[in-house]
Design goal:
The chain is an alpha+beta fold. It is built from 11 helices and 17 strands. The radius of gyration is 21 Å and the shape is globular. Cell wall formation.
Amino acid sequence: MTGNEAKIKVLLLFGGVSGEHPISCITASSVLHAIDQDKYEPLPVGITKDGQWTYLPADEYQADLGNGELPEITEVGTPARLDVTGGTQELVVVQDGQDVSLGKIDVVFPLLHGPFGEDGTVQGLLEIAALPYVGPGVLASAVGMDKHYMKLAFKAVGLEVGPYVVLDNKKFSRDPEAGYDAAEALGYPLFVKPARAGSSLGITRVTDREGLIAAVDEARNHDLKVVIESAIAGREIECAVLEGHGNDPARASYPGEIVVTGGQDEFYDFEAKYMDRAASELSCPADLSEEAIAEVRRQAVIAFDAVDAEGLSRVDFFYTPEGKFVINEINTMPGFTPISMYPQMWDKTGLPYPQLVDELLTLALERPIGLR
């Protein structure tokens, strides 16, 4: 970019009202450190847990897990809002009691995880505001957030899905014992999960009915709809997917393998992902045959297309001893923390973090608003 060209204004939205608020804060800090500030002008806006927007200057904001505590946006120092009146899309902040425009927003990077962030709600707001944004649209975000409906989409395109049952809130409230019986029919061990939460929040591995009942209660603290899955014997393999430019097909990274290496984590839970760096490691490319690597990359792109995703997604599989891939889930706004698997896999595939951020913003700016 030459000195005569205006920088591209990027609204970074992070924080939010979901349980993944602190991870979103760390993701935003990571992106701010990586973004090309000769090309882009980042405008960070943190959203408190009660939904208030506050502007945080890019040169002042920083969040990490260095002290072992989860960061949080707790105060509204400089209130901020989108102003879309008169056909413009400006970021307006309140300073000394006066509205001040920070200029027209060119693109939004919604670094929001979980409900009211990556579930289609914010995406719908940005569509109405006619603002380009990074990541999948309304439908893909909603389907990708719901572990029930994503499984239906995967099965529809022929991907192998493990056995599961869904505890719908109304049916379960009328007859919880029937729900427990249906889950037990799958056979222990089981994984109990909130249907619409991420970062492994509220997920419990259980081996008996007492544990099942407690785990369902815990999952329902995060979401009244619960998915219960059979444990799949297999290695955990992930692929990072990027949308193609124009009419080009989506691209999959080299697959990575999550190895839980120590600590008290029985599986790759919230603590292993974000709090205990020694609890897990990523092997990329995963130790698989060339044929298996090609197959999992192929299936990752099929999963991406199955939910009509755009921009980016991470697709997670189990690789069974029989040599089959069983799809676990798709994450349409995977973490961007320094130890997150999505950017690590692209780095191993030849796309370093700063270039990955630029690629995602470029894809968002290329994409038309509205039906496409």
